[in-house]
Amino acid sequence: MVVFTRKRMVLFVVLLSLVSGLVHLAITSNYRLRLSWDVDTPLYAKRPFQEKRTMVSSMQKFLVALQKIRASICDLVAISRLLNATLVIPEIQESTQSKHISHKFKSFSYLYNEDEFIASLSKDVIIVKSLPEDLKAAKKRNEILTFKPKGFASPNFYMKEVLPQLKKAKAIGLVITDGGCLQSLLPPSMSEFQRLRCRVAFHALQFRPEIQKLGRLIVNKHRESHKPFIAYHPGLTRETLAYHGCAELFQDVHTELIQYRRAQMIKRGIINDELRVDSHLRRDNGSCPLMPEEVGLLLRAIGYDRQTNIYIAGAETFGGQRFLIPLLAMFENARDRTFHAKAELPDLVGPETHIPSNNFQPSPVKNEEQLKEEWNRAGPRPRPLPPPPDRPMYQHEKEGWYGWITETDTEPDPSPMDLRQQAHRLLWDALDYIVSVEADAFFPGFHNDGSGWSDFSNMIMGHRLYEGAASRTYRPDRKVLQEFFNMIRDDLYHPKHNWTLKVREHLWNSIAEEGLVRQSLLSKPTSFLSHPLPECSCRVPSEDSHQVKGDDGRLLYGGEVDCPEWMPRKPETFTVWQTVEFAKIENNGSSENGSPVVERPESDDSVEKSSTSLALDQDDEWDPND
Hints:
Blueprint: E1 10-15, E2 23-27, E3 46-48, E4 62-66, H1 67-83, E5 86-88, E6 91-92, H2 114-120, E7 127-128, H3 133-140, E8 146-147, H4 155-169, E9 171-176, H5 191-204, H6 209-224, E10 229-233, H7 238-243, H8 252-267, H9 279-284, H10 292-302, E11 309-312, H11 325-330, E12 334-335, H12 337-341, H13 345-349, H14 368-376, H15 395-398, H16 416-438, E13 441-444, H17 456-467, E14 472-473, H18 478-487, H19 497-511, H20 513-522, E15 537-539, E16 548-549, E17 555-557, E18 561-562, E19 574-576, E20 582-584, H21 611-617
Parallel strand pairs: 1-5, 1-6, 1-9, 5-7, 8-9, 10-11, 10-13, 11-12, 13-14, 15-18
Antiparallel strand pairs: 2-4, 3-15, 16-17, 19-20
Helix pairs in contact: 1-5, 6-16, 16-17
GO molecular function, one term: glycosyltransferase activity
GO cellular component, one term: membrane
Protein name: O-fucosyltransferase family protein
């Protein structure tokens, strides 16, 4: 029997995800020991803010959420606590039975462990698995009031608009489509609600065991090589490219598909812009994702060699493997999930009912009599030569995501198989998120999109920041990088040495305080979980305790509370020697200035002079190949 609060106010939710969900991983431990090439050590003082509380899950278990879905669930828990209401387990539309997923799972349990979710938040809000029978009947009769809040809805909206209706009706519904239902930035007096968001995202949402097991398997396969690895997410999705007007960077059918989606967004009011824009100008101002070829050149400029292990994340890469060929040519160990766990992937989806495939019917071949009849109807003599026979159509030309564009101007509705594959992408993204958060370094092809929606890379970067601010997470400024690429656009593969030094300096700065300040300035106003500092972190005693504030007085860096006494003060640190073996640094390996001693492999372009002296002594025309 379901027991509700005294007021018997119930909040049930339907989450509508318009794009494939992006998955997030969290760990219940106080902090995680991370293996990194080189880290910004002053950031070691930042730790996840936690209160001692009883956790149902054991230490080192993986906890998860999804891109828009995760942000929505975190907001819902905060709203339920704000309204003192009971929350019903949300329903995720992309993983319902109508999408032809396995009968073993319900909507929420397709990805998450319901029991862990309920128990982990038992001290914060009451959560139940379903409505009581009388409210279920009222829901079927459409007698329950439903709200569709915006992603930037304020707490006052819920207190003044939703709460009075909730008291009258005892139950209301929320339909969420914007990837959230509560504004990202809350007043300082509501800092506890921000920490509640972090507890939900980083501790309460947990993958079902099958996803955890396979995710750990992929990570362990990387660890068995005794080499660090990079996770890279291209960010090349059709929605992103259409929203920012990047169609002209592609060709032929890809351009048409992007433009069709952009026209839909304009019609629905999602964007207020022209259909046709200069994609090259959009790329130069940093609006478009970095191409895999450009990312490969950047990684080479940093100093990663050809044998570096790279994990390519993302359930969708628009354009397919063709756009990854330059990256694969530069790094021979660049692989995705199918290389590491191809045999295990089908086990995640569970037993599914058979969906009959559409039997392809090729164009009928005309017999001799039909050809003669067409010839006789060809018109008066002198007759032209008969038209050439119709080219036979093959099955691959009529099926798939592009088959419709050669025959009709309207994209057809998704088939049952398409709906099932959309649900599968949630699982693939979950695995990619696990590996990306556990990786020794992460490089985003696209983040800070400015659309107001959280994206895959932002969620990874936010979680890696929560676990350890000193982790090697690149936060590049795409506008600056495109200025660099425009300098060498005619000869990308033979840049001058000064160009390499400038790129390396920019990317190293993106890992440290400069990158954190920029991330807080651009990402946090639209997605709190992409930069959960300082609300969800604390600081151990450290010399580096200065603060950086924005023009509006908001803290962009620093300002964390002191960590509790029970938290460890000195995390273990690791480094990678030139033999590419992990070795533990004893006594923190500190130098005179307090920074850890980290030996880097000598890069191909290094000489006896330091990088600083090279930048000063050599002009822009110097070329090491001359």
